[in-house]
From TrEMBL, chain A:
Alphabetical list of Gene3D superfamilies matching this protein: NagB/RpiA/CoA transferase-like
Full protein name: L-lactate utilization protein LutC, contains LUD domain
Matching Pfam families: LUD_dom (PF02589)
Lineage of source species: Bacteria, Pseudomonadati, Pseudomonadota, Hydrogenophilia, Hydrogenophilales
InterPro entries named in the record: FTHF_cligase-like_sf, LUD_dom, NagB/RpiA_transferase-like
Residue ranges of domain LUD in the record: 126-226
Amino acid sequence: MSESAPLDPALAARRRDTVLGAIRRNLGRDAAPPAPEFPMPPAHPRLAVPEEDLVERWRKRWEARGGTSALVPTKAAAVEHLVAWCREHGLPAPTHAARPLLELPWPADWHLDPGPAGIDTQSAVSLAFAGIAEVGTLAFLSGPESPVTHLFVPDNHFILLDAATIVRHFEDLWQRLRHHLAPAGGDWRERLPRTINFVAGPSRTGDVEQTIQLGAHGPRRVHVVIFQENR
Amino acid sequence: MQIRTREFIPRATFALHDPNLQRALAKAADGFIGKRAKAIAEVPEFEALREAARVRKDEILSELDLWLERYEARVRAVGGQVHWARDAEEARAIVLALCRRAGAKTVAKGKSMVSEEIGLNEALAADGLEVIETDLGEYIVQLAKEPPSHIIAPAVHKTKEQVAELFAEHHGTTPEPTVSGLVTEARQQLRRAFFRADVGITGANFLIAETGASVIVTNEGNGDLTQTLARVHIVTAGIEKVVPALEDATLFLRLLARSATGQDSETYTTYSMGPRRAGDPDGPQEYHVVLVDNGRSRMLGGPWREMLRCIRCGACMNHCPVYGAIGGHAYGWVYPGPMGSVLTPLFVGLDTAYDLPNACTLNGRCGEVCPVKIPLPDLIREVRHAQQRDGLHPPAEQRVKALWRRVAERPALYHGLERLAVRLLATLGHKGRIRRLPGLSGWTDARDLPAPAGRTFLELWHAKGHDE
């Protein structure tokens, strides 16, 4: 077999037909069933989220996994809070931030790069797309304004979260996502980002003696500042 | 991965006498069982979720071809490529060809049971590639040149002292033998690997037909660094992983973390859809999915279809008293415990993996905790039936069973022998317990046998004035 043979299109097509054929044979039919209308979206059982105050529920769940959070009135107040937080905890000033955050009134000596994080990046600031109250997690959509490396490379990760974007269930997020990607109708799937990332706290591992240790590969400290100006 | 299922009995015996392993297993079982129970107690909807998951997965499997075709079309639409592999050899060849075409020297790997199943690491290494497992547990067993012993906690059998020795040997450093010291050491070593890797290989917990997404969950973030920093992202996934919609992934994810680690959510859940878009500051330039059949389509046809519901959470092994006593290595291949006792014989042969289903005590706990309600005890029994039909049971066992049948078919003989046996056993008892049974020390070494009352049930029944 030559080096590129496994990727040869004719061979690939034959393999595909063999696998699909084997599936059909074992399901006891000759061809794919007539395509049913996509049952969208399917309705599955949800978890009860009885809390009226989704911000409170979100924070409780988030902090149960080792993340920290603060509640401030405005985006500008979030900046002030972060500056104080870094000073108070002896943390290095962030060097990277999502592009939409660059316009905020950061201190003059914070030089924030909207590009990808590198191996030495210690600290970054991101803007969440949404929070999900059900389990207290955050959703991010990758793109020019939201580098994925900011979520995973730095030791310290700061996240701004708009309280108005906290939804009750994952199902609410999916509906919001579909609308967000195609606000004027059309096929939302044509505009999917490369990734949808959910971050539920600091990186952790239990792989050595089942003892939980934070900061396995991703951030050791994740601090979320919730601002309420749009609430 | 080398198949060592024929060594089940010597490996199990060895495991039972390994004090480090026994300590680790006891600790792990307590941790997993307790955490899961606590997580589920908080979710009154858990049973409804299990039932919905069972029904949904069966619906999907009955139209698997349709969902796979739709999934493939969406992956193409977002700029990715799908490769179909009929067996392990084809899957290896495809991944290897993709690595060669990319001019790769270093491959970073997130945890993928399918990649273990197809023996990917060995094939890549044999071709001169540097392959680095990045899940901390997988990394530890890779350094130790051992297979994983648990599907979600691969190094559960290692003590921190053993890990420190491995790191000292391979890194040339002297890490502090504390959990935090070891994790920091691994973090520094693996960080360089993530940035050096040309290709990142991950598994997939789910594939979503609606969006062409592959979904991974991790607590460490290793799968994300693996796929974000490499030029090429390759996903290896079994064909049974596909689900129709985002809401379906949500259904299964509500069950997965709680069943696996007792968390309400793992730290990171990532939906990946194709390569880097125009203007994206990071992410891979190529995105490939290798769909692996390797016997799965055949399982759709027989009594084994239900096994394809498995979402690889590990709850069955965490609750299995046999796994809890001997650990994962004794099972001799990728999939240990109850799910492995069904899957392994189907993948490697009823004959080759003969002992696995026969080690089961049929206590039923695995079936009770399975988040997608796979009737594991029934399937294990079904594997035994298939072995019986193929004449695989050892001759001695066949003779004993034939003898048993001859006796059981003759009530007078049966009751006569029974009367003799209960009287004999009663004389061996002391205070109602039999502590040692000649010829059956394997049983009585670890536990007592209740001594019979000295008379059979029928004798006692008649003595109470009941009729025949």
